[in-house]
Structure formats: structure tokens, C-alpha cells
Amino acid sequence: MIIIKKGEHGALLVTDRIVFAAPAYPLEMINDPTGAGDAFAGGFMGYLARTDSVTEEGMRSAMVYGAAMGSYAVSHFGIRGFEGVTLIDVQRRVRTFRDLTHVALAELVK
Predict the structure, then answer these.
(1) DSSP secondary structure code for residue 83 in this structure
(2) Contact criterion met (CB below 8 Å) for 69 and 39
(3) How far is CA 77 from CA 7, 18, 34, 45, 86, in A?
(4) Long-range contacts formed by 96-102: CB under 8 A, 24+ apart
(5) Which of 15, 46, 66, 106 could pair with 40 in a Cys bridge, judged by C-beta atoms 3.0 to 4.6 Å apart?
(6) Are 41 and 4 spatial neighbours (Cβ–Cβ below 8 Å)?
(7) Over the stretch 50-97, which tens digit does the pLDDT of each residue have?
(8) 104 confidence band (pLDDT: 50, 70, 90)
(9) How far apart are CA 98 and CA 39, in angstroms?
(10) For the CA atoms of the chain, what is the radius of gyration?
(11) Are 7 and 36 in contact (CB under 8 A)?
């Protein structure tokens, strides 16, 4: 499995069977992109460590958690985007992200 980070365009998971694209979490304003890739990697690896799942489904979920963490990184300058963020906040953002991407996909299929 290979993860390709694409900055503001999200990331790709490539295996011998699938290509999964996770877009960047949509924000109205980006203040500072510094550290977004590191935050993505931290969210991605943190999810895998917490769930101990390296299945394709687990990797796709980890990509979404990575995108959510990257969104916190770019929302403020420096590490201020992470101030006060709890696991519940991250899970809420992941749910919102999944809802947004599923709605967008459903619209494309129409």
C-alpha cells in the first residue's frame, strides 16, 4: 500500500487492488498550510495505532482521520488550530467529512 499526499487536493491510497482518493476537508479559509502534511500523517497513523487495523477499509478510514487532522492544522497559524481539540471534536469532523463526501458522490451518480 502506498499513500500519496497531494496537499490541498487531499491524498490517495493505492494498493494492488484499489485507488482511494480522500479530498482535503473543505474549509472556508486556510490560514497556514505549514504542518498540514505532518498533521495528516499523525491522524492517519494515530487511527491505525488506535484500531490496529491495516485492512483496506481501515486504511480508508485512517485517510479520513488524516484529512480531518490536516484541516485543524491549516485553520490557524502554527499549532493554534489544535488548541482545545478533543477526540470527540475529531470524530464529529470525521462524520461531517464523510457526510459531505457521500452527498457529493451521490450527486455525481445522478
Answers:
(1) T
(2) yes
(3) 17, 35, 8, 23, 19
(4) 97/25, 97/64, 97/67, 97/68, 98/64, 100/26, 101/23
(5) 66
(6) no
(7) 999 888 889 999 999 999 999 999 988 888 888 999 999 999 999 998
(8) low
(9) 19
(10) 14
(11) yes
Grid cell at residue 36:
498540514
Three cell numbers written together for 16: 494492488
Q: Which three cell numbers stand for residue 77?
A: 497559524
Which grid coordinates are listed for 19? 485507488
**Mean pLDDT in residue range 14-33:** 88
Residue listed under C-alpha cell 490536516:
70
Q: Taking a C-beta distance cutoff of 8 angstroms, is the pair 90, 81 a contact?
A: no
Backbone angles phi, psi at 19, to 5 degrees: -130, 120
Place of cell 487495523: 53
Which of 59, 21, 30 lies closest to 43, judged by CA?
59
Contacts 24+ apart (CB under 8 A), 10-19: 10/67, 11/40, 11/63, 11/66, 11/67, 13/56, 13/59, 13/60, 13/63, 15/56, 15/59, 17/56, 18/56
